[in-house]
Design goal:
The protein is α/β, with parallel strands linked by helices. The chain has a single domain, classed as Rossmann fold (3-Layer(aba) Sandwich), CATH 3.40.50. The protein is 41% helix and 18% strand. It has a 3-stranded parallel beta sheet, with helices on one face. Strand 1, helix 2 and strand 2 form a beta-alpha-beta unit. The longest helix is centred in the N-terminal third of the chain and has 15 residues.
Length: 103
């Protein structure tokens, strides 16, 4: 149900979509693959699935801003105390650093 609502909000005709998954037990990655497969079956435009532990956050997020029609979908499991899973820690640390960088 939630997946259908999310997919209705995405302009499938022109959006460049990237899905970022962070998981400790694999459930978030499995769900990310479901979203990826559904979107891939219904569109011709580029769609990319990332494991957050395998990408450089700066490169990945900068590439999203290079076009007007970009969509990022984040699929994450929560970990102890609401912290990101181990595979997403570097990604989240970078985001926090950039949020506090006042250059």
């Amino acid at each position: 149900m939630a997946l259908a609502i999310i997919l209705q909000k995405i302009n499938l005709e022109s959006a460049r979509i990237q899905i970022f998954c962070g998981s400790s037990g694999g459930k978030a990655l499995q769900f990310g693959k479901v979203v990826f497969d559904h979107l891939k079956a219904s569109r011709d435009e580029e769609i990319v699935l990332h494991n957050m532990g395998d990408v450089d956050p700066e490169d990945a997020l900068t590439s999203l801003t290079s076009t007007d029609a970009s969509v990022a979908i984040f699929v994450l499991s929560t970990y102890t105390g609401g912290q990101p899973p181990e595979s997403a820690k570097q990604f989240f640390n970078w985001i926090e650093d950039m949020a506090n960088d006042f250059r």
